[in-house]
Backbone:
């Protein structure tokens, strides 16, 4: 049968990857390392959202803000901070880290691993088939021998609020690629994107109002959101919790935006940024051609194989499977799934038991996440509430960081708090949360302890060097040990 007009046929690939962000790159890399032929399809920039509009630019912009805040916490250094940030320098730094939105370096990387790159919109066309539509309207038909991996990421979820189109709101993209500092900015949403954007733009000189329906970063321990809110308020952000936007107006496209709030009050601002969650970028990738619902999150098994599709060929990685909308977790899934695809292709047995080579077990037990606010908030594993709801018999240990001399030397009056969530039956950590300056650098040690299920009796022998912020580990474990050794009064 000849190809439809304008469509080119091509020999089959072992694996076709939809999406060339970090997640797609990892599955492609592992499949190629196993000797499989790989086609990578990307409709935007190779490198994806993370490289150009999310993780990389946001952290490049936030670092100068946090560096100045750190200096102001050290006597002798704070006196040297005499001016405001050089915004041109900050934006220039961001531009370097996103390569001026030029993806040629990442294109070369895809080629260097021996994968073929197809630019255009990739869409499933039945089992193991993908059609790529280029900007000029021409189409390329591809066939996968073994697997199609969907790594198309997610999109901002804008609420259905009257006037939102007229308001032309920012999302994370404008929040990270803008080179103009608005005099006034309203940030809607108290999750990770919301608190980071509020931190960033307040530090660059905006007068920021942060509006959230409930406590900040609600998936972490409650104290994390409370301390982040205190830090934002101290920096000058107007933090309002328990507030919703009911309407927006922007009659003049170049004029201010007026927000109507659910208490009847109004707020005027120069720009408004919505950070109100994400939706899967699966609306137009042909899910209907394989019996799935367009625009849905994709349920997967432990190897990231999509459930409800016959033939063991369709995988979903990263944001689209809704397990953990974090780049590092998606990359982990990509590596694991790439190895699973290679094993299935070669007819080798899968090691998909918990913590096996082909199992994404960490998605359920040891997901690390960091919010680069001031102070930072970092956590891995379960909160106390999550652990109790899961039926674990737990104990929490809480300490302020000023218990550790290293923290006090790092910052005068170091503002921070730490919590361990302990499984009393197994004597291991189920979760760890740190809030404080630079605590992101402590999180990997916590992740190793949680993922490795290191017994606390052994963990006490992992000595933190003096004087470092990581000494908090010693004080947390010592506090728990003392409590365990304290004789309990006999019942009356």
Residues:
């Amino acid at each position: 049968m000849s190809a439809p007009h304008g469509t080119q046929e091509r020999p089959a690939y072992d694996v076709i990857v939809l999406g060339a962000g970090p997640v797609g790159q990892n599955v492609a890399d592992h499949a190629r390392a196993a000797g499989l032929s790989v086609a990578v399809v990307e409709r935007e920039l190779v490198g994806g959202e993370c490289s150009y509009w999310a993780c990389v630019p946001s952290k490049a912009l936030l670092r100068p803000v946090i560096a100045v805040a750190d200096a102001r916490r050290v006597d002798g250094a704070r006196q040297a901070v005499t001016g405001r940030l050089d915004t041109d320098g900050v934006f220039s730094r961001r531009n370097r880290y996103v390569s001026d939105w030029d993806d040629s370096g990442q294109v070369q990387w895809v080629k260097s691993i021996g994968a073929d790159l197809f630019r255009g919109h990739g869409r499933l066309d039945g089992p193991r088939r993908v059609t790529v539509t280029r900007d000029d309207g021409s189409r390329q038909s591809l066939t996968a021998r073994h697997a199609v991996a969907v790594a198309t990421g997610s999109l901002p979820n804008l609420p259905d609020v009257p006037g939102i189109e007229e308001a032309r709101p920012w999302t994370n993209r404008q929040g990270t690629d803008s080179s103009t500092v608005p005099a006034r900015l309203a940030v809607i949403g108290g999750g990770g994107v919301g608190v980071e954007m509020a931190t960033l733009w307040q530090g660059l000189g905006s007068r920021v109002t942060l509006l959230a329906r409930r406590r900040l970063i609600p998936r972490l321990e409650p104290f994390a959101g409370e301390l982040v809110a205190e830090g934002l308020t101290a920096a000058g952000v107007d933090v309002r919790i328990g507030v919703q936007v009911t309407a927006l107006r922007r009659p003049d496209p170049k004029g201010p935006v007026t927000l109507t709030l659910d208490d009847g009050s109004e707020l005027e601002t120069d720009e408004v940024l919505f950070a109100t969650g994400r939706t899967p970028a699966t609306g137009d990738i042909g899910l209907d051609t394989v019996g799935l619902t367009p625009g849905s999150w994709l349920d997967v098994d432990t190897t990231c194989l999509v459930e409800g599709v016959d033939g063991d060929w369709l995988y979903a990685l990263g944001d689209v499977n809704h397990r953990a909308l974090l780049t590092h977790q998606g990359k982990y899934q990509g590596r694991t799934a790439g190895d699973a695809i290679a094993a299935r292709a070669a007819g080798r047995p899968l090691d998909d038991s918990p913590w096996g080579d082909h199992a994404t077990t960490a998605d359920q037990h040891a997901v690390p996440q960091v919010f680069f606010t001031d102070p930072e908030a970092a956590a891995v594993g379960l909160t106390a509430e999550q652990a109790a709801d899961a039926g674990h018999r737990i104990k929490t240990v809480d300490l302020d960081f000023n218990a550790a001399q290293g923290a006090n030397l790092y910052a005068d009056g170091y503002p921070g708090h730490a919590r361990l969530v302990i499984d009393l039956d197994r004597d291991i950590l189920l979760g760890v949360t740190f809030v404080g300056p630079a605590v992101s650098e402590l999180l990997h040690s916590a992740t190793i302890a949680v993922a490795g299920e290191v017994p606390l009796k052994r963990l006490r022998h992992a000595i933190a060097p003096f004087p470092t912020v990581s000494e908090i580990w010693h004080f947390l474990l010592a506090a728990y040990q003392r409590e365990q050794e304290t004789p309990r009064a006999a019942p009356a």
